[in-house]
Structure to design on (65 residues):
Protein backbone atom coordinates (compact mmCIF):
# COMPACT_ATOMS: atom_id res chain seq x y z
CA UNK A 1 0.00 0.00 0.00
CA UNK A 2 2.89 2.37 0.76
CA UNK A 3 4.31 2.00 -2.76
CA UNK A 4 0.93 2.96 -4.19
CA UNK A 5 0.93 6.24 -2.30
CA UNK A 6 4.54 6.94 -3.26
CA UNK A 7 3.81 6.51 -6.96
CA UNK A 8 0.66 8.57 -6.50
CA UNK A 9 2.68 11.46 -5.06
CA UNK A 10 5.22 11.27 -7.90
CA UNK A 11 2.34 11.26 -10.38
CA UNK A 12 0.89 14.35 -8.72
CA UNK A 13 4.26 16.13 -8.93
CA UNK A 14 4.44 15.39 -12.66
CA UNK A 15 0.81 16.42 -13.17
CA UNK A 16 1.47 19.75 -11.45
CA UNK A 17 4.48 20.33 -13.72
CA UNK A 18 2.43 19.45 -16.81
CA UNK A 19 -0.28 21.91 -15.76
CA UNK A 20 2.13 24.70 -14.76
CA UNK A 21 4.36 24.52 -17.83
CA UNK A 22 1.95 26.05 -20.40
CA UNK A 23 0.84 28.69 -17.90
CA UNK A 24 4.44 29.78 -17.28
CA UNK A 25 5.28 29.66 -21.00
CA UNK A 26 2.27 31.82 -21.94
CA UNK A 27 2.85 34.26 -19.11
CA UNK A 28 6.53 34.80 -19.94
CA UNK A 29 6.07 34.54 -23.75
CA UNK A 30 8.67 31.79 -23.98
CA UNK A 31 7.20 30.27 -27.14
CA UNK A 32 8.56 33.05 -29.35
CA UNK A 33 12.04 31.57 -29.67
CA UNK A 34 12.70 27.89 -30.37
CA UNK A 35 15.92 27.90 -28.30
CA UNK A 36 14.28 29.46 -25.26
CA UNK A 37 11.37 27.04 -25.62
CA UNK A 38 13.71 24.01 -25.63
CA UNK A 39 15.64 25.34 -22.62
CA UNK A 40 12.35 25.95 -20.79
CA UNK A 41 11.19 22.39 -21.46
CA UNK A 42 14.52 21.00 -20.22
CA UNK A 43 14.28 23.06 -17.03
CA UNK A 44 10.79 21.70 -16.32
CA UNK A 45 11.99 18.14 -16.97
CA UNK A 46 14.96 18.64 -14.62
CA UNK A 47 12.68 20.05 -11.92
CA UNK A 48 10.47 16.96 -12.26
CA UNK A 49 13.45 14.61 -11.99
CA UNK A 50 14.74 16.54 -8.98
CA UNK A 51 11.35 16.32 -7.23
CA UNK A 52 11.16 12.57 -7.87
CA UNK A 53 14.72 12.12 -6.57
CA UNK A 54 14.09 14.18 -3.42
CA UNK A 55 10.82 12.36 -2.80
CA UNK A 56 12.43 8.92 -3.09
CA UNK A 57 15.36 10.04 -0.93
CA UNK A 58 13.02 11.39 1.76
CA UNK A 59 10.92 8.21 1.76
CA UNK A 60 14.01 6.02 2.01
CA UNK A 61 15.25 7.96 5.04
CA UNK A 62 11.77 7.89 6.58
CA UNK A 63 11.41 4.13 6.19
CA UNK A 64 14.77 3.47 7.90
CA UNK A 65 13.66 5.15 11.15
Amino acid sequence: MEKHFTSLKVGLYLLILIVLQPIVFNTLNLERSKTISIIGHLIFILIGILLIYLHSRYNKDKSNN
Remarks:
- The CA atoms of residues 46 and 52 lie 10 Å apart.
